[in-house]
Amino acid sequence: MNKKKKIEPLAGEALLKKVKELDSLSKEEKAKECGYYTTTKNGVERVNMMKFLNALIDAEGIELDSTSNSNGRGGRSASYRISVQSNGNLLIGSAYTKQMGLQQGDEFVITLGKKHIHLKQIDGAKEDVEATA
User: From the centroid of its chain, how far is CA 100?
Assistant: First the structure.
């Protein structure tokens, strides 16, 4: 029996690169070539399309699982880009502070670099946070 060695499923940039190389194949063949299949006891190969498609979504950096506000209302999600406002303020919104687990009253020491802002929490309980402006 000709036994093909199963490859470890590709992820991230390696997955994206391989899928582009396999442009002419069907999606099932692409999934199989990228390692997204299992072999049954009877030797039948089954393609796991859900794992393959989820890996592609992750590799592209698409966020499907949004974390909604606790009150059930949808809000703006963090885009990881901010702009200086017309009044000169630089506002870091609640999407970022919630993601970092910050609470009202948390205090930081601000250190300015050439192209970054470094925040260090005063109580020392949290890790250092760095934002690039």
Answer: 15
> Rounded to whole angstroms, how far apart are CA atoms 133 and 119?
12
Structural tokens at position 86:
């017309």
State the DSSP string of 24-55.
TS-HHHHHHHTT-EEE-TTS-EEE-HHHHHHH
How many degrees, rounded to 5, is the angle at CA 52 between CA 51 and CA 56?
Answer: 115
Residues linked to residue 38 through DSSP beta bridges, in sequence order: 46
pTM (two decimals): 0.46
Instruction: Measure the CA angle with vertex 33, ends 30 and 39; round to 5°.
Output: 115
Average pLDDT of span 113-122? 85
Phi, psi of 40 (to 5 degrees): -75, 170
Residue 27 has phi, psi (to 5 degrees) of -65, -35
Domain residue spans in the chain? Answer: 12-60, 94-132
- Looking at the DSSP bridge assignments, the partners of residue 118 are 111, 130
For the stretch 30-62, pLDDT in tens is 999 999 999 888 989 899 999 999 999 888 887
